[in-house]
Amino acid sequence: MMDRTVHSYEDARRMARKRLPWMVFDYIDGAAGNGEGEASNRRAMADIHLQSRVLRDVRHRDLSTTVFDQRAEVPFGIAPMGMCNLSAPKADVFLACQAAKSCVPIGVSTVASTDMETMLALSEGHAWFQLYYSGDGSGTMALVERAKAAGYQTLVLTLDVPEVGRRPRELRRGFKMPFKIGASQFIDFALHPRWSISTLIHGRPEMANFQRDGFTFDRTESRAGADWETLKKVRDAWPGRLVAKGVISVEDAVALKAAGVDAVQVSSHGGRQLDGGVPPILALKAIRDAVGPAYPLFYDSGVRSGEDVAKALQQGADFIFFGRAMQFAIAANGEAGLQQFWAGVSSDLSSAMAQMGHCDIASLKAR
User: Fold this and answer.
1) What pairing do the DSSP bridges indicate for beta strands 106-108 and 127-131?
2) What count of Cα atoms within 13 Å lies in the side-chain half-sphere of residue 311?
3) Sign of CA dihedral 326, 329, 331, 335
4) Fewer CB within 10 Å: C terminus or N terminus of the chain?
C-alpha cells in the first residue's frame, strides 16, 4: 500500500499533483511569467547557510514565541490564501482548527471560501483578516467595517497586487473565479474523480465573503489606484493592528512604519506577481536593518521546511507564514496531511536548532 504520509513539502506537492485537477493544481502551484521569480527566491533561500555549533546543552528546546504580545506555540502560521477549499472540501476548517490548536495566526483572505465570521470562531480568535483595496474602495471599506464588527483585532492590507500578475499556467488551463466549465475543464474533472465527486457532494467552492452584502469581487479588477492616501483611509478606519503585506523595498518599509502601520510582511506573493522581482528572502535583512530591531517584521514566500523557517528568522523575521505548502498537504491527505506536514516542520526546526546550539526562538533570531 502506498504511504500517504506527508513527510515534506515535496511529498505534499507530489501527491497533490496526482489528486488535483490540472486546473486547480496549476492555480495553487503557479507563479507569474515563467516562474523565475519563485525559482530565484528558492535558490536564494538554498544559498543561505546555517552555522552548526557543538558541545552545547540543547536537550530542552522551546519553539514558542510571541506575535503582537500573544504566545504562539511555534514561530510559523498560515498565510492568507484565496479559495482554499479548492484543495479539498473543508480545507479552511482544517487550517483554522490547526491555528487554534497551535495558537498561531491564520490569514483569512478577502476571497476565502469560508466566511470571515466562521473562520474567526473556528480559529478561536487567532484569525487575521486580509484585505485587498480594489475599485473605488466602497466594497473594501465595507469589508473593513464587517471585520471590525466580527471582532477581528488584526487587519492585513495586501499591497503588492496593483494588477493581477500574468500567470500563463492559469491562462492555459482556463482558470477563472467563479469557474467556467468548458470541454477541457470537464475532461480535467472527469480524470480526477475523487476530487470531483467530493467537490460535488460538498458543493462548489465560492467566495464566501461576498454572498450576503450585495456586492461582488472581481479578481481581475484593477487596484492600481491605491496610494498613500488609501493607506491613511484604511489606517484611520481600523482601530486594531494593521499589517502591510507584500513589501520588498526598504524605502517602502520605512515609510509604512512612519505612517503608523504596526508591522510589515516581507513577501513576493509567493512569486505570483512579478517574475523578475527581487527575491524577498534577500530583501529581508536590509529591511530589518532599516526598521530597527524592535519593529514587528513578518515573512512569507518560498518557505518549505523548518530549516527555511530558521533561515528567515535569522535574516530578521519575527514570524513566518506558510502558504501553498499547507494547501498541498491537505490535497495530499486531508486534515491528516496538514497535521503531518505541521509536525514535520516543527520537528525539522527543532532539530536545526539543536544542530545550531539554540534552545529557544529568541536565541535563534538574536540580532
Assistant:
1) parallel
2) 23
3) negative
4) N
Provide φ and ψ at 220, rounded to 5°. Answer: -95, 0
pLDDT at 1 over 60: no
Residue 183, classed as helix, strand or coil, is helix
* Cβ contacts of 136 within 8 Å, gap of 6 or more: none
Catalytic residue among 7, 60, 126, 269: 269
- Is 302 annotated for ligand binding? yes
- State the angle between helix axes of 324-356 and 22-29 in degrees (0 to 180), rounded to the nearest 10: 40
Mean pLDDT of 252-259: 98
CB neighbour burial string for 220-235, b if at least 16 within 10 angstroms, e if fewer:
eeebeebeeebbebbb
Q: What are the percentages of helix, strand and coil residues in the chain, rounded to 5?
A: 45, 10, 40
289-335 confidence digits (pLDDT tens): 999 999 999 999 999 999 999 999 999 999 999 999 999 999 999 99
Domains located in the chain, CATH noted = 9-364 (3.20.20.70)
Residue 269 among the catalytic residues: yes
CA-closest candidate to residue 26, choices 178, 167, 190: 167
pLDDT at site 2: 61
107 labelled ligand-binding: no
Does the annotation list 109 as a binding residue?
Answer: yes
**Does the structure show a pLDDT above 80 at 6?**
yes
* Percent with pLDDT over 90 in the chain: 74
C-alpha span between 101 and 305 (Å, rounded): 20
Q: Average per-residue pLDDT in the chain?
A: 92
220: pLDDT confidence band, cut at 50, 70 and 90? low
| 130 known member of a binding site | yes
